[in-house]
Design brief:
single chain; alpha/beta; Rossmann fold; five-stranded parallel beta sheet; aromatic amino acid biosynthesis
Amino acid sequence: MPNILVIHGPNLNMLGKRNQNFYGSRSLEDINNIIERKANEIDFNVDIYQFSSEGDIITKLNEAFNEYDGVIINAGAYTHYSIAIRDAIEILKIPVIEVHLSNIYNRDEFRKKSVISPVCKGQISGFGYVSYLLALEAIKYLLQED
């Protein structure tokens, strides 16, 4: 069974309390439960983490090198400026899918730029929690191609 790492970045622990127009009404725990159900359905093992610290995200990405078959990352605000997270993703030789709950391209100007996208296999944004489920399906497809 493929092992998939899911990383939620800063402030995603506040889902359900944040602007629901952008982030929906589900809590992070709700979303994690949905991710786990989908992973089980498609025969994936999934480990899910939420970090507010950039360093913790980088450490977990570094650990992913030999432990995981794919990564789904919602780097939150770090998406727009963390070259360190970008570099940690670039090292990986496995599919990495960038995910966002909201459509970052119809929001504030500063949110339209992702420094991690160029080193990810793809990006899924704007579908709320379903973005994570689509990312799981994408990784399933990519792993079947190899």
